[in-house]
Structures are given as C-alpha cells and as structure tokens.
Amino acid sequence: MQSLIWLVVLRALEVHARPYSEASALKGRGIFIPVTSSVVPSVSVSTSTNGAASAQILPTPSAVRPDTIGVVFTSLKTDGLPTVQPLICTSIATPISRLLVTGPVMPIFNKVQADTASSNIFQPIATDSPPSQIGSRPDHPVARLGIKPQTSPLGTNKFYANFFLGSQSSSSWTHPYSLAWSKGGGTSKSWGMSVAHINDNQKVFGPNATANPPQYFINPIGIQSLVLSALELGNSTQLSTDSLTAFSANVNLIPSSGASPAITFPLVQGMGFVTAIYNGGTPVLQSGILFRSVTKSTTSIKPGITKFTIVLEDGKKWLLYAQGSGLDLTVVNNGLVQATSTFKGTVQIAKDPGEAEGLYDAACGAYPTTTELSGNVDGAKGSYTFSFTKGGLQNTTLLMFALPHHVASFSPATQSSVTKVQLTTTTKGKTTAVIADSWILDENLPIGIGFAPWNPATVKDTAFSGSTAGAIRDVAKVEVAQNMSEQSNLNSMYYSGKALAKFAGIIYTLNDLTGDTGLAQAGLKNLKVAFDVFTTNKQQYPLVHETAWGGVVSTASYVTGDSGVDFGNTYYNDHHFHYGYFIYAAAIIGHLDNTWLTANKAWVNTLVRDIANPTTQDPHFPVYRNFDWYHGHSFAHGLYETADGRDEESSSEDTMSAYALKMWGQVTGDANMEARGNLQLAITARSLQSYFLYESNNTIQPANFIGNKVSGILFENKIDHTTYFGANPEYIQGIHMLPLLPPSALTRTANFVKEEWDVYFSNGRAEKVTGGWKGVLYANLALTDPKGSWNFFSQGNFDGSWLDGGASRTWYMAMAAGLGGL
Ligand SMILES: *[C@@H]1O[C@H](CO)[C@@H](O)[C@H](O)[C@H]1NC(C)=O
Ligand SMILES: *[C@@H]1O[C@H](CO)[C@@H](O)[C@H](O)[C@H]1NC(C)=O
Ligand SMILES: *[C@@H]1O[C@H](CO)[C@@H](O)[C@H](O)[C@H]1NC(C)=O
Ligand SMILES: *[C@@H]1O[C@H](CO)[C@@H](O)[C@H](O)[C@H]1NC(C)=O
Ligand SMILES: *[C@@H]1O[C@H](CO)[C@@H](O)[C@H](O)[C@H]1NC(C)=O
Q1: pLDDT per position as a tens digit, 9-18
Q2: Which domains, ranges and CATH numbers included, belong to the chain?
Q3: Which of 147, 536, 578, 748 falls between 20 and 30 A from 415, CA-CA?
Q4: Helix, strand and coil percent figures for the chain, each rounded to 5
Q5: How far is CA 663 from the centre of its chain?
Q6: For the segment 111-169, what is each residue's pLDDT rounded down to a tens digit?
Q7: Ligand 4 site, residue 529, Cβ cutoff 6 A
Q8: Out of 566, 648, 653, 670, which one is annotated catalytic?
C-alpha cells in the first residue's frame, strides 16, 4: 500500500483522512471540502511519493460556489497514481491556511457541482416543446370534468383531483379538513360542500382492531359535519374548478349550467378555515350530524364580521365567521340553518378543539388563495419558503396548519409563529396552527451523495480492497454481457426503465468503482443502443405529448383501451417511478459520455419536466406532477377517482425519483435542478421517516400501528399495510426498499433497517424468501449489516433467480462493499 500525501494549499482549514488502498478505485472521484470561510482561488496539489503534481484552480467567477472546493482525480498513470484536476473555487476574502490531506480524502464523491444555483432554485428546466420525435395529440381518455379553461397545464395527481374525476363527489383533503361535494347525497341530501374533520378516536383499525399491529386504519368518510350550501343549489347544480395550481384550486358550485357560481371555495393545503365566497345567494348551512345549538356572538370580533358558535350533536364545536353584507341565520330544523337574506361575502368555518377560539377570532377575515414556492441553497444548507397569497382582510395574518415534518424543520423565525393549537389529520399525525403569511423551512442537504455507495453514519474508505474489486469484477463481467436490448425493450415503461437503470449501475460500478474502463465502455455502447430505442420513441408503446391535460404519457391505453395497462402510465399513474429510472440511467450514461449527454439532454429533460417541472414558466407541463411540497413526498395516484384520496405505495421509488433529478442536474450542470433534487431528497427523508417508515420511537402515527414498520400504501384517508400485488411480508416491506441506491441510506436509517429486519426477516426468514425479493431483502441488509449482505451476494452458490429485473448482483455487491468498507 502506498501512502500519498496530498497537499492542498489553502488557509484556515486542516483535514486529515486515511490512506487509501488501491489507487485505481480513486479514478473519477475526488475530494469535496466544505469550508466556512472563503478560499484562495489557487490550489496546488502535490504528493510526497509522486513528486509534485500541482494544478491551479481556475478562479472563474461563474464557477463559484462559496463554501466548497474540490479536486477530482481524473486519470490514472501507469504507476497507479492518480493525476488531479481541481474543479471549483471561490473568491478571496479571508486568508486561509494550509489544507493537509492524506489521500484519499473523505467523503469521496464523483463530481463537484461547478455551477452556482440561482437565488431561487425553482427556475425553468426548459420552456420549449418536447422533442419532435415524441408526437403530440390533443385528446386524452379522461374528460376534464368541470375544469374551466386555464393557461397552465393541469396537475393530475394533486389533492383536489377528485373534484374533476368520476362522480366529482369523492373527498379532497386539505388537512386537517376534508371537503366533498355532497351532490344531493349523504345524510343531508344537500347540494353544497360537505366539510369534515375526524378525531383520532374515530379512526377505525382493522380487520382485527385488537391486533398489534393492525393491518390498516381508516378514517370514516361521508360524515357531513357541516355543509356549506345556498338556497339556489339543487339538482341542476354543477361543480367547476379553476385556478388549479400545485397547492390550491378554486371549486365553484354553480346553480345550473351557464350560471355564475353561487359559492366559490378557495382551497389551499393547510388552510386554517374552510372559506366559502358567496356571490349574492342565500346561504344555507346543513349538517348530517345535526345541530345542537347555533349561537350568534353578541360581542364584535372585528368590524364587519359576524360570528356564530355551532355545537353539533356529536358535541363538537365549530365557529363560523361571516364577513360582508351582514349575515343572520335562522334555524329551520336541527339539520338546516338558513340565512335570513341574500349575502355577498365570505363565510369561514373552523373546528375548535377547545383552546383555539382566540386564535380563530384573530385570524378570521383573511384566507389563503394559493401558495408560492421558492427556495435556495448555500452549500449543504437548503431552505424553502411557502408564501401564501391572501384574500379578504390584508391586515390580518393567516392561520395555516402545518404537518409534523414542517414544524420539525421550521426556521427559527417561523418557529416563533407556531401556536399550541393542534388538530389531528387522517394519516399525517397532528397539524399545528401557525400564524404567519409565509413559512421558511430549513433542511440539511445530502450533497455528499453521488453515484457511489454512501453511508451517512461512518466515514469509511469506499475504495475497495483488491480482492473485493476482483470479486465484483468477476460478477460484473458476466452481467454486463447480458442482452440489454432484449431486457429493456418491453411493453412497459416501468420495467424498461428498471432494466436500463440496472445496466447503468453495472457499468458505473465497472468504470468508477473497480476501474475496469474497457469493460465499462463496451457495456456503455450496448446500453446506449438499448436507450436509443426510447430516445427515438421506437419502443413498443411510444410516448406521446398529450395537450389535453398537458404531459407526456405512454400510448398504451390509447392503443389497448385499458386504463390500467403499464400501471396506468397513460392515466398519469406512477410517472415519477417510471421516468425516474430512465433519468437515473441517463445520468450515468451522461456521466460517462458527454457527447451522448448533449445529444439526449432535451429528451431526458422532457421526462424531468413531466414529473418535476419547477415553475409555471414552462407552458407544457404542470408544476410538480408527483412531488407534493406540502406533504413532503410524492403521490403516485393518477387520473382515477378514489374514495380514500391520493396515495403512494413505494416510498423508495419516490426517493429514487428525487435522487435521479439530483444526479441528472449534476451531470448536466443544471445547478438549480441539482439543488432542487437535493432539497427534495432531504424533505423526502424527513417526510418518509415521519409517515412511511416507522422507527420504534415514531410518535406521529398511531402507537399500535408502528409495529408494521412501514406504511404499506399510504392514502390521504387510510394507511393499509399491504400492497397492490400481494400481502407477503417481503412484498409489503420490500416495495419500500427497492431500488437500493445511495440515498437508501438517507431515508432508511441503519436503526430502522435493523428494527424492521428483526420483526420480519431475522432468524432465517429472509433465507426462505424466493425470487427477486430475496435479493432486495439482502441488499437492504447492507444498510445495517454490510458484511452479511456481502456474504450473501458473494457466495459461490448464488442463484440468479434471487435478482429482480431491476437489480444486479454487481451493484448489490458494490453497495455492500462500499457501505462496509470491504
Ligand atoms: C385479534 O388479535 C388479537 C391480538 O393479537 C388476537 O388475540 C385475536 O385472536 C385476534 N382475533 C382474530 C379474530 O383473529
Ligand atoms: C329537481 O328538483 C326539482 C325542484 O325541487 C324537482 O321538481 C325535480 O323533480 C327534480 N328533478 C329530479 C330529476 O330529481
Ligand atoms: C384592517 O382592515 C380593515 C379593512 O380594510 C379595516 O376596517 C380595519 O380597520 C383594519 N384594522 C387595522 C387594525 O388596521
Ligand atoms: C439481443 O436481443 C435482441 C432482441 O431479442 C436480438 O435481436 C439480438 O440479436 C440480441 N443480441 C444478441 C447479441 O444476442
Ligand atoms: C429515534 O431513534 C433513533 C435511533 O436511536 C434516533 O436517531 C432518532 O433521532 C429518534 N427519532 C426520534 C423522533 O426521536
């Protein structure tokens, strides 16, 4: 083993790391050094055994990132010593002392971001039409029921989708409230908007309520606590929507076709009141629970505001605030309360859990109309802001409800606006009332995650020992020779993407981790041929840009008439999973081949824009089809009405999609995309650990449910510890594991993985699992027991049937070796 001394002349910083064992393992990697003060724009690098290998860091003003400096090992000499190329630097401010580095420096990474992100990272990826090989058509099988024409493409997976799908009467959850168009149904038989809030003691656990853990819990639906309606509404009433954004929508109840709305409901995720804007009709208030009392307040809260206290027969107290032309209510019967005259203005309702009346009194009169998202990054610090635009009283600060993962990451300033008032949600723990017109949320960004195996807990030398590299190489040689075209040219975007991603991982491992560049290049050639089928749109079901909703979908449902084919890709189901695999594979190809990158950037960016367009400035795609910045994770559910709301099953494929965005942003030099990917990953980790992946100390989900360790399928209204394809433990737990990639260690902590393993897979149970799931379980084991994982994958009698179509033994071995420092 050679011991090299890398001497990087800086000031005010000294880093020591361990010697490395194999120079070849360093190729393509480098050092990435966060510094707190600025850095001299000149770095010389030398080694004690190789003589001086010095290099200048270019002080290019456009390539400045203020808190990092990096060098990357670019090529290997025959003597096994890497040459170095400095990548970035920043301007001179304070003097910096010597940086002494004993190679290799950790964390090892692949490539340093050379460009700087904008002050708001939500900048367009592109604004032009998708590439011409992706055809265009104006129609889509799902009608856009009641959606008023709007300039921006339509979000297909958002919380309000039930308002334009199917019967238009399934619920939408803004949290903590849910709303549903009563549509002449339910106990009230109303034609207005039904509002509900469910308490924890109303949650139903089953099918065996006393089991610990129970399989599922569900919140009752169809409870019409209060229905906001108008005398004008009846069996000719229609529901329309407008102003649909990533966070909000207006829902209108129209007495009859062509009439103007009697009531408009501006819906915004987290809104503190349900607000109804009356347009001069006669307000009607109904209840399926029935009214116990409706009392007008005799004291004035604010000028122009009338307040009523409503107690329902379930004992729950609601407050109603009316602002406008004066509202008086008369009780017609215990299910019906009616205004004594027509009314123009807003009616707001909120549920008082006991101590919230003062807060509601102060916050009434103002309501959010939408949420603007912005964000910035500074090295490993990321921050995003929700700015709520406001209707009603402009001098009143908004009351908005925050989910647990929001409160946990609020900036100090926003933290000071948090109140003690809480209302529970259906599946996300308790919301907390916050009095503020904007929130700032801070995250630590996982900037150290690259293509290489990554472990946040240990600073281990990820350079493989010679024997480890050799064992991986032996397996990779065989796997890289598989027929890539055959495995990837399928009738499914999902399975095709998984296959391409698998081969990309093998080729990356050969090139970057074992140093077998020749083998890697040969494989890369085949992978590009296989990938070309898609970039030329010659796969079995080509993609098409449909302009009815605005997005790129598989033509499979158009051709077959089957809405569920390819997991519903045509219906916007699972796009972030399907396209995430392609984007990840493309990032690796682009990392290895700059010419390919340039030629195919627009095609890959089209997939990125379809799932994660960051701004309304892109006229061809909705903003963030899948990732929900309020929930902190994605929703997979596309254009199908659903009684329990949007859902997502595979939290790990969600993670993969954010990681793919980060890596594609990195290799294409789109610093804003990379930053958004990092931010999305950090938020996803926080949100998943709150709602999907349960360490034993999770206090957010019901205590008796934590023993399941994972959610199973998380809906807006229920969590069901199962899958869409079967109930074997390895399916239910495993669909939250795959694909195993570097960010798996971010979302799935070593402690969590150990706890889950002990519940489901220890004592020989994993050994009994058959097929590809067995490989998934043992790859996941690497997150807590890398040696055990390595032993499984490196065993002499390894059976290829233990790998699913998206997995390679090569990458699984690399991950185990990388995580374990083997
Ligand atoms: C329900 O779960 C409890 C606790 O595990 C168990 O004792 C009981 O037998 C179960 N009931 C049924 C019907 O399975
Ligand atoms: C609609 O309501 C009107 C007025 O209440 C009633 O006369 C009519 O029969 C209803 N029509 C239907 C189809 O129910
Ligand atoms: C807030 O605005 C309302 C309506 O513009 C006005 O009537 C009220 O006096 C203002 N209140 C304060 C405290 O400025
Ligand atoms: C790979 O599979 C494709 C499709 O089945 C086939 O046309 C091609 O000949 C195969 N290539 C090799 C090298 O076997
Ligand atoms: C739960 O326990 C783990 C492991 O000890 C710890 O890292 C984590 O911070 C804890 N989470 C909470 C919410 O306390």
Answers
A1: 222 222 222 2
A2: 2-73+177-269+273-364 (2.70.98.30), 466-820 (1.50.10)
A3: 748
A4: 30, 25, 45
A5: 15
A6: 333 358 899 999 999 999 999 999 999 999 999 999 999 999 999 999 999 999 999 99
A7: no
A8: 653
